[in-house]
Design goal:
Number of strands: 0
Distance between the termini: 105 Å
Strand content: under 5%
């Protein structure tokens, strides 16, 4: 007489089958498709660089953040106090630590400078965009004085 396996509700049906294990072999379609998808996602570096927009010399530059205005002041003070330290890495680390420990009241002066510069940038960008839309920047304006 056959023993029933504990926890298996259909032990008799399992023993009734021919006892062969059936292995399912996956087709290569799924693998090939995933390989094709990964290949299609990766683009050569040369093609990515071609898509990059051309640099417009007349376009206004974005202003620095408040931290960079603080960095200018801190760098001068730090170099006066530590003339032997020449590494920008060490200066940057010290500056970052100082910025983190500063209170909002101490940072306000740098935020004010950054806000003023940002407002100037926004005005300059609005003016630039108007000129671009109206077509005042022609190709003749872009010619360099070295092209003569």
């Amino acid at each position: 007489m056959a023993k029933k396996a504990k926890g298996s509700p259909s032990a008799s049906s399992a023993s009734a089958s021919s006892g062969k294990l059936v292995l399912r072999i996956k087709s290569n379609e799924g693998i090939e498709r995933s390989v094709r998808q990964t290949r299609s996602r990766k683009k050569p570096k040369a093609k990515q660089r071609k898509n990059k927009q051309k640099f417009d010399a007349k376009k206004p530059k974005k202003p620095p953040t408040a931290f960079f205005y603080f960095l200018e002041d801190f760098r001068k003070e730090f170099q006066e106090q530590n003339p032997d330290v020449k590494s920008m890495r060490d200066i940057g680390k010290a500056c970052g630590e100082k910025w983190k420990t500063m209170t909002y009241e101490e940072k306000v002066q740098y935020y004010d400078i950054a806000t003023d510069k940002r407002a100037e940038f926004d005005r300059a960008m609005a003016e630039f965009n108007k000129k671009m839309e109206s077509g005042k920047f022609d190709e003749t304006d872009e010619e360099s004085e070295f092209d003569e």
